[in-house]
Structure formats: C-alpha cells, structure tokens
Amino acid sequence: MRTDERPLAYGGGWLDRAGGLRADPEWVSERLAGSGSVLLPLWRDRCLVSAGDTPVRLTGAAAAEVRGAADEVVFLGLADGAAVFAADLSGRAEPDALRLAGADAAVDVRALVGRLGPGDAAVQAYARGLLHWHRQQRHCGGCGAATVSRDGGHVRACAGPDCGRLLFPRIEPAIIVLVETPGPPARCLLARHGGAPEGAYSTLAGFVEVGESLEDAVRREMAEEAGVAVTDLAYQGSQAWPFPAGLMVGFRATAASAEVRVDGVELLEARWFTRDELREQVAAGKPLGRVDSIDHRLLHDWLAGRD
Fold first, then answer.
1. Do 32 and 83 contact (CB within 8 A), yes or no?
2. What's the domain count of the chain?
C-alpha cells in the first residue's frame, strides 16, 4: 500500500467546502453578495482563461454581472475566509461568455495541467464536475418534475408536489491496475484499447459495477478484458477524475500466469513490457500514460522500482 502523499492532478484542492454551512441559504446568499467573494466562470465544461492560460477569477461588479447572466451558480468553498463560487455560462454563445467574463478563451482544464498547481487544477475540475452535474439533473428521475438547486448547489430537490426527492452529485468509481508477471523477468501488462492508434498502450481499467468491492472489480475486469487471473492486490492511491464524475482507484496486482487473452472489444491487444522496453519508449519521446492521470504515476513508479 502506498504511504506517500505526492499530489496527483485534480487532487489536493485548497478549499474548505464548508459542508456544515452551505445548507443555510441565508449564509450562502450573504457570501454570494459579499465584495470579497470570488467567482470562477465556466462555459460548457471549459475554463474561461485570460492571457497566459490563467483561469479568470472575478470579484465585485464583474462577478455580479456574470452571476446575473449565468445558468447556474454554485458554492465551492472557502479560501482564507473568502467564499469561492463557480458560474455556468453554457447558455450563452461562446463570444458572449468570453466578453462577460473578460476572458480570451475557453479551455479544457486538462490542457492546463502542468501550468496550474495541483490545488488550482483541483478547484477548476471540481467546478467543472459540479456544474456538469447540474446541467444533467434538471428533472427528477422518479416523477419527471423540475428540480431546484439547494445547499449552495450541492443538492437538487424535486419540485413535484408528491415527490420531493433529493438528488446528490454521484461519483462513478473505476479501478485502474498495473499488473505484473508472477516471476522474473519483471514485466508489466499494457494493452491497446479499442479506438487507440497502433502502438498506443496503457494500463488496464474499468468501472466498478453494482454489488462489487473495488477488489472484486479488479479481478473481474482483468479476467474479462485480458483473460488474466490476478492475486496480491495492493492499493496505490486514488484520483478525482471529474470528466464528468469519475474517481480512479489505482492498484497493483500479480498475474497468476503470463497467458493473455484479450476480449477483442474493449482491448484489441495486450502484451508484457520489461522496464528496459518502457525506458526505450520514454527515451523516444513516447509518454507513459496521460500526464494528468494516475496511470502515469503507476507506470513511472513501476519503472523506478517503487513498491
């Protein structure tokens, strides 16, 4: 099990989410109108940025104008006592949204990783995920009536007269696994997924199903997709992945044998790689995993020989 606290992208957010306060509508309204409050504008899941790809942060009159034009405003938390909100301008045309926010461009938060600190990227991704959820929950799944935002945007309540169902943001957990051979030479299993270009290999992953533990999901996914039975599961860490609502949970596991049988649907091919082969890829400029994803950490830790 991992014990270090090296930050992963979209983790380590610096906000106090103020869970005990945001359910008070008067408290939220006071913070929303406060001159020291900060507003982060987004447009259709993209961050609005100014010169140098710096996310726009609005206060005062500029924030009030965007709030008035937004489809949804949510409370994110407190930073050194100042309230931080996010506003969704998705209902506006892109040029209008940029003008209102005083922004130069609308950029996917994943394109900003490496330019923002982990905490700042976490807050932008948090805002993205929460606003995306609101756009998808305009109506109750039980009775079909409209829903209204509550608790600073962390709950939606059905307005139906005979329902009143409360809807909360849902997280979709997924496991991602670095599988090793049972004996020497040391090798790890990487696969080419459906739709991936020739030679593009990555670790194996899959969503957790209803009624499964994380460990159950690891064993099932490895068997279904690659025909590999695994043992010695070891938790490596987790990562928020709000695209739109994922939680990636990383594991290492050991294969019972080196035999591989891909399903031909999720995986097109899979093979074992030695550390020297991965080092050759790095030397050739081929990335090991997405730079903002936990699979990057899993692969580089294995390459460095970390347990």
1. yes
2. 3
